[in-house]
Amino acid sequence: QVLTLDARNHGGSPHSPLMTYEAMSLDVQHLLTRLGIAKCILLGHSMGGKTAMTLALQRPDLVERLISVDISPVSTTPVSEFSAYISAMKSVKIPDGLSRSAARQLADDQLRPVVQLPQLRQFLLTNLVEVEGRYVWRVNLEAIAHHLADIMNFPVFHKPYPGPALFLGGSNSPYISSKDYPEIQRLFPKADVKHIEGAGHIVHQDKFEEFITAVLNFLPPP
């Protein structure tokens, strides 16, 4: 059984003014309780990876194995870069009555001066939705902007997670680097670190087949 869930302030999940890893970890814990799941294998990408790590470190009894995709348990990219992306998203103006494709193209044009990577713009544009004839961002930009420092950092933990862990990065991404290895080993002593050649930050999109193979190889046999 595979469950996919949207983090708070993302996708179809409710909006909340609080956006910390501790809060997002509790969201997952509440879901596991509600579904009667005693133990799970957690896989998370980027912010989701940090949420998965937080849960594994807080409640190792709930996590059989952990997969963190292209993120380490350390502070990441300078806040200013992401702050600029959020400001650019907030400033997008789309007139009512446009088709979805025209609205996406217009938003893409407006984001381009700040968000120069086409793949990143496409990723951000997945959050553009039509509600009652108007195009809006389904992510809670205000909460994310307010908690950007929390999202870029990682909570302090002293006790390691004792289970198996896989840190799966993209070779073209800086988010799992050799300078992170000591902290990965401190908090996740049973961790394997692998990089998929030719993948950027969105590993599962850039190298889908290789990503699936790496994940399946890490999972226990059925």
From TrEMBL:
<dbReference type="Pfam" id="PF00561">
    <property type="entry name" value="Abhydrolase_1"/>
</dbReference>
<dbReference type="GO" id="GO:0005739">
    <property type="term" value="C:mitochondrion"/>
</dbReference>
<protein>
    <recommendedName>
        <fullName>sn-1-specific diacylglycerol lipase ABHD11</fullName>
        <ecNumber>3.1.1.116</ecNumber>
    </recommendedName>
</protein>
<dbReference type="GO" id="GO:0052689">
    <property type="term" value="F:carboxylic ester hydrolase activity"/>
</dbReference>
<dbReference type="InterPro" id="IPR029058">
    <property type="entry name" value="AB_hydrolase_fold"/>
</dbReference>
<dbReference type="InterPro" id="IPR000073">
    <property type="entry name" value="AB_hydrolase_1"/>
</dbReference>
<feature type="domain" description="AB hydrolase-1">
    <location>
        <begin position="1"/>
        <end position="206"/>
    </location>
</feature>
<keyword id="KW-0378">Hydrolase</keyword>
<comment type="similarity">
    <text>Belongs to the AB hydrolase superfamily.</text>
</comment>
